[in-house]
Amino acid sequence: MERLKSLIPNDLKHAIGESTTEKLALTCSSLLHFLRPLPLFHQVIEELTGSEMALCRKSQKAALDLKLEGNRCFSKGEFHQALSFYSQALRQLPMSFDDIDVKLGATLYVNRAAAMHKLGLFEECLRDCNRAIGLLPSYVKAWYRRGKVNASLRNYVASVSDLEVALSMESSTSGKSIIQEELKMVTGKHDGTNGARIPNNSDTEKELTSLADSHPVVLQCVSTPAKGKGMASPKDIPPASLLHTEEPLAAKCQEQAGGEQFCWNRAFCPAQNNFSPDLAKHITDVTSANYTKNIENDKHFEHIPEHRHECGGTNWPAVFPPDIVLAGRVVANSMEKRRLAGKISVPMENFDFAHHYDKIPPDSKLEFHMYAIVLSFCLQTYYSMDFPCTESTVSQLVLLICQIKVNSMAIIHIKSTDEAEKFKKGQKLSAVNNVLSSIEQVRVGQAIYLTGSLFNHSCQPNVHAYFLSRTLFLRSTEFVPAWSPLELSYGPQVGQMDLLERQKSLEEQYYFTCQCLSCSELNLSDLVINAFRCPKRNCLGAVVETAYQKPQHENFVQLSAKSHDSVSDKEIQKVAHKLLEKSGAFSHVGPAYCLSCGSRIDLDSAIATSNNALLSIKRLKDSIILNDGIGISNALHLLDLLKSVRHPYSKLVAQAEDYIAEAFVKIGNLEPATKHCNASIKILEKLYHAKHIVVGHELIKLATIQLHLGDGTGATDSIKQVEVIFSLHYGPDVNKIFPYIGILKEDAVSIASPSEEDPIMLLKSSQATSSS
To answer: Which residues form the SET domain (predicted)?
Structure first.
């Protein structure tokens, strides 16, 4: 693409960069007429669409190189990067039995399954295990991984059968020992549930969808001068109400980046391999069921409008950025719908999404023009004259790419974990360490939703978006009065970034200036999140790096109407008293001055001290020196140093407290770990609010540490808070979506109320009573 761009005359580049929506057809026509005669242009199109051309040719060597990169990332614990490399490798691997290295194909599926298992993407992991077994039914690692992920899904009957198959196939003594150990653990879980299968995410998705159908919330598209189109309801909406569910208009998922179509080996016969009748039946059931599903899915895949144009040897989707691939899938979907409606004479429909074309930087306008033209020719190779490459279709594609840039959503999955099971298997400290580092969100794809895109952004949203597979779920997180805006977060939020950072992020990514309440009114979080401490000992005032600008709002003194219990007028009075004065003194509230009392600090020195302290704390936390206790002592000294210059509510202090908590966990000293984890949570409650999902994730960490300490009462209290927070964001079935929370709760209750059969806990209880 860069070669073509270098040939474009400067005057044409300038015209495209300065173009508006009204002149878009003209600039598209000019660029199309310039590129069409160029031999290099046709060479690029041939490279992108021709299956034998070098740019997109499938290569077993390239697949092997990408596999090695994936293995390197996996060994370093970089599972998300490993997932990406394995997916790229599957893209490169020939997928017909004439060309494929069957073992390499099966290995790639199992390796990608292992990465997804580590990321908590259990359903996706199971699918890749099935694909590996389809290619190579005798592959031990595929059956072993399938058994492990079925255990994570709490489908213990299938897990035991999978592991028994792996054990029967394994020839090495060490391999058998590993499988036997896993089988022993799973059998214990299986016995504990009496063989019952506990519902997984797929079951929950159906139940939640049913809930949405039976209790619909009336939504209506409204328009406001400040934000244009948005969503509201004519009726009051209670907290945790399921507002909307929706399948995407089009989507591109990481799991689809390789492996949608693959061959199945039906030559394997379990009856000829000395398996017991039960195991032979299980193998036959799995392979036959998956073969049937694969045939159906292959047929389904070829007839899914958004995918069909990518089949048949065309591999340009592996080269283009996700936004461009998504634009192609939206067009394909539209083409199929119009074909069925008998309107194929019009190749594209106009989508009523915001595009902000006029606000896009000049370089991006040129890039979108280039991709629109190249994409239109790629689509024409499949649709022929049904999709003509004209200035009209190209200009529509430019706007569509802009619309996807502005309106598409990242499909996020919360990284699941079953570490709580380790509490029952003598691996408690390992479980705590893993939980502390595993509460994270994982981006697994990108999609665009027709109704979901109508919800506007707020930096303090009242709607939470989450995904089960590709299905979008929107749920209210607080009481919303009738006709009040229903708004979700496009990414930046109060507590995560300060006002200037949020504004910059939204302008760069979505091309609009946020005018939500949090960006228009004074709030505590923006004042303190990156602030320094006032030099006066008893002053809670915030010292900022840049001159504080009063929000241009007639009620700027008032707190936002969306303020929460942890934020009060009194706290803002203490933090920024001078901002609340009617007149005078504001000229002194600039860089390095306290917003409350006007005292000045040495800002350069404070910044250097803060940066060095936080960096050193992180290094010490990751360092082996922690094992002798010297590292902890140094880390605590650095924390005191950081707190001497940073505001008590600063996000950096919260981050440092979290680092120290993790460091104490690493050396097995959990009492102070609890203290520092609690300190981090208290700050986050100031920056976000007490019921924010970020606070919920931190409370899970705290509950895990408390459980290991045997503090059942403390863990129960923490888990109750977690349930309240997660129920607001994910509804009443939160324990089915996040089974780990349910496991923690069971453990906490058992510790807080020990049974008579547990003499150790009874002894602890009697000792506590006698000492009191």
So the answer is: 217-491
Taking each helix axis from N to C terminus, what angle separates 173-192 and 156-169, rounded to the nearest 10 degrees? 160
Lay out the sheet containing 242-246: strands in order across: 242-246, 471-476, 463-468
The span from the CA of 179 to the CA of 530, in Å, is 50
Could you tell me the CA-to-CA distances from 211 to 243, 449, 465 in Å, in that order? 10, 20, 16
Q: Which residue's entry shows tokens 């061959």?
A: 263
- Say what the pLDDT of residue 282 is: 86
- Note the pLDDT tens digit of each residue in 148-191: 999 888 888 899 999 999 999 998 999 899 999 999 888 876 55
- Which residue pairs, CB below 8 angstroms and at least 24 apart, start in 195-201? 195/156, 195/157, 197/154, 197/155, 197/156, 197/157, 198/154, 198/155, 198/739, 199/736, 200/122, 200/123, 200/153, 200/154, 200/155, 201/122, 201/123, 201/468, 201/469, 201/736, 201/737
Q: What length is written for the chain?
A: 772
Burial class of residue 582, CB neighbours in 10 A (0-12, 13-18, 19+)? exposed
The strand pairing partners of 646, in sequence order, are: 532
Type of residue at 557: V
Amino acid 561: pLDDT: 38
Distance between CA atoms of 130 and 146, rounded to whole angstroms? 8
Structure confidence at residue 721 as a pLDDT band (50, 70, 90) = very high
Q: What is the DSSP letter of 593?
A: B
- Domains of the chain, start order: 1-37+309-407 (no CATH), 60-190 (1.25.40.10), 222-249+411-510 (2.170.270.10), 521-594 (no CATH), 637-752 (1.25.40.10)
Nearest partner of 231 among 513, 28, 457, 439, judged by Cα: 457
The residues that bridge with 457 in the sheet, in sequence order, are 488
Find out whether 89 and 66 touch, Cβ atoms under 8 Å. Answer: yes
Residue 306: partners with Cβ closer than 8 Å, 6 or more residues away? 250, 251, 329, 330, 332, 333
Q: Per-residue b/e over 37-70, b at no fewer than 16 CB within 10 Å? A: eeeebeebbeebbbeeeeebebebeebbebbebb
Per-residue pLDDT tens over the stretch 594-643: 999 889 999 999 999 999 999 999 888 777 555 556 678 888 999 999 99
Question: What is the per-residue pLDDT across 420-461, written as a single tens digit (0 to 9) for each?
Answer: 444 444 445 455 555 555 556 777 788 999 999 999 999 999
**Residue 250 gets which letter from DSSP?**
E
- Reduced to 3 states (helix: H, G, I; strand: E, B; else coil), residue 212 is helix
Stronger pLDDT, 21 or 194, i.e. the higher one: 21
Residue 436: what residue type?
A: L
